[in-house]
Each structure stands twice: as C-alpha cells, then as structure tokens.
Amino acid sequence: MYEIGEHEASLIAEYDEEFLALLENKNNRLVWGAMTALDCIASINPETIYKNLAKILIAADKGSVITKDHGVNILIKLAANKNFMNKALTLLLDQLKTCATNQLPMYAENATTVITDKYKKDFIKVLTSRLDDIEKESKQKRVQKVIKKLS
C-alpha cells in the first residue's frame, strides 16, 4: 500500500485508520510499512495524523530506523501546515535532540524548509549542541551547512 501511496497518496488516504492500527503490531515490517504509508498521507489527512501524533511518535521511538525516519517526515509535513506548525516544530526539535547522530544531517536538511523565524534560533542551538557527537566529518559538514544556511 505504501508503494502506491508514494506514487499517489490519495489512493491510500482513506485507509489511515488501518495504518494507525498497524503501528501497534508486533511485526516490525508491518509497523514501518504503516508508518511509511502514514508519511505518504500526512499532507492529505493532516487532521487525522495530528490527532494520532502521540501514537505515531511512540511507534517511531520504539521502531526501526525506517519507522523513525518516517516519523520525523510526518512532523516536517505537519510543520508545513499552519494549523499544526507550532506543535510539530516543538516535537521536531525534541526529535533532533535525541535522534541517532547518523540520522541528524538528513533530518536537519529535510527540516530546513519548514523552520520559521520563531524556531530558527532553537533549531540552530540544537544542531550546534549535537555537532561534537557526530563522528563522521562528512556528516558534521552537512549539519554545519544547514546551520550556516539558517544563520
């Protein structure tokens, strides 16, 4: 289903409740598949996604890297919606504070499109505080590039 959603999200949007139910499944593949599908439809059904954000973030925290990646993507999509922006950006900052350092550059790069002036200072502060944790120089440079872009 998520592969269909990647091409045409509207075709799977009506199954949002089924995808949300799968987040509690013991089968990890079903969980990350459901999270991928929810990511696909986050822009189409933002109200449903926002209403179930706690459940989504619990699944992301417990889940695989794929699950976490899509959880962050969902926050970014919600942050692009003015109705959910403040909550989504606050939660996104929390994710950036604790995410795996190897994922941080990608999350930071993807988030730059939704960071508002109100959150720019905090965003830069979080990224700067994590720089020393990043072992690979190439990943450090990616985060530094994001910081420079936003400064």
Q: What does the model show?
A:
By secondary structure, the protein is mainly α. It has helices at residues 2-7, 16-22, 28-41, 46-51, 53-62, 65-79, 85-98, 104-111, 117-130, 137-150. The protein is 72% helix and 0% strand. Helix 3 runs parallel beside helix 6 (65-79) and helix 8 runs parallel beside helix 10. The termini are far apart.
Q: What is the CATH topology descriptor?
A: Leucine-rich Repeat Variant
The major beta sheet can be summarized as: none
Strand content: under 5%
CATH class: Mainly Alpha
Uncertain runs are none
Molecular shape? globular
Helix and strand element order: HHHHHHHHHH
Number of domains: 1
| CATH architecture annotation | Alpha Horseshoe
**Secondary structural class:** mainly alpha
What level of helicity do the residues show? Answer: over 70%
What count of helical segments does DSSP give?
A: 10
Distance between the termini: 40 Å
Mean pLDDT: 96
CATH superfamily: Leucine-rich Repeat Variant
> Based on the structure, what is the oligomeric state of the protein chains?
single chain
Count of β-strands: 0
Rg estimate, integer Å? 15 Å
